[in-house]
Design a protein that fits this description.
Elements lengths: L3 E6 L5 E6 L4 H14 L6 H21 L15 H14 L1 H10 L5 H5 L1 E3 L6 E8 L6 E6 L5 E3 L6 E6 L17 E4 L11
C-alpha cells in the first residue's frame, strides 16, 4: 500500500495535513493543486506535469536515437623505439635555443633564496637569513636581519628573542648552517653542527 503524507504550515496560522493512500495519479494531482491554492500558491500543477512529460519524452527519444559511444579496440602496432628516440633528440636539438630561453624566463627562485642574503635597493646594505623557533608559542619562521641586529620577534605572538650566530664559529658573513641560515633565534639550532653545551 502506497501512503503519502504532506504537512504544510505557512507560519501565519494556516496548517494542513494531507494523507493520500493508493489512488490514481490524477486524484493525487488534484489534491496537491488544491492544497497549494489554499496557501495562495497559484501554480498550474497540471501544466507542470504536462511540461515534465514532454521533456521526459524528448530525452528518451534522444537516447533511443543516439548510438552509444564506446572506445574502439586499438590494434597493437610494432613501434621502432630507436626511431622515436632519434626523432625526440632531433626535435630537442632543433629547438634548443627556444627551450633554453623559455627555461631561463621561467626561473622563479629569487637569488636571496639561494644565497641567504637580501641586498637592499641601495645596492650596499645586506640582510642575512635568520631562522627561529619561538619559545613562547613554538612558531617557526624565517627573517632577514642586519648583521648587527640584537633582537627579533616572533611572527605570531611578537615574543622578543635574542639574535645569535647560526654556527658555533660565530658570524663572519660566510659561515651558514646546513639550512642556509646566518643567524638563529629562540629555540632554533642546527643539531647537525657541533655545539658546546
Amino acid at each position: 500500500m502506497l501512503k503519502v503524507k504532506i504537512s504544510i504550515d505557512d507560519g501565519a496560522g494556516k496548517k494542513a495535513d494531507i494523507e493520500i493512500n493508493e489512488t490514481d495519479n490524477l486524484s493525487k494531482l488534484v489534491i496537491v493543486d488544491k492544497v497549494f491554492r489554499l496557501f495562495g500558491i497559484e501554480s498550474d500543477v497540471f501544466e507542470m506535469v504536462t511540461e515534465y512529460d514532454k521533456i521526459g519524452k524528448m530525452y528518451s527519444s534522444f537516447f533511443n536515437e543516439i548510438s552509444p559511444i564506446e572506445p574502439e579496440k586499438l590494434q597493437k602496432k610494432n613501434v621502432n623505439v630507436n626511431e622515436i628516440k632519434e626523432q625526440l633528440i632531433l626535435g630537442l636539438n632543433e629547438n634548443k635555443d627556444e627551450l633554453e630561453s623559455t627555461y631561463k624566463e621561467t626561473k622563479s627562485t629569487p637569488e636571496f633564496m639561494i644565497t641567504g642574503i637580501k641586498i637592499e635597493k641601495d645596492g650596499v646594505t645586506k640582510r642575512y637569513q635568520l631562522r627561529y623557533e619561538c619559545p613562547a608559542c613554538f612558531n617557526r619562521g624565517t627573517y632577514y636581519v642586519f648583521n648587527h641586529s640584537k633582537k627579533t620577534w616572533c611572527h605570531r605572538c611578537q615574543h622578543e628573542m635574542d639574535v645569535l650566530p647560526a654556527t658555533p664559529n660565530g658570524f663572519d658573513g660566510k659561515s651558514r648552517d646546513n639550512f642556509g641560515n646566518f643567524f638563529r633565534a629562540g629555540e632554533y639550532r642546527d643539531m647537525n653542527l657541533k655545539w658546546e653545551w
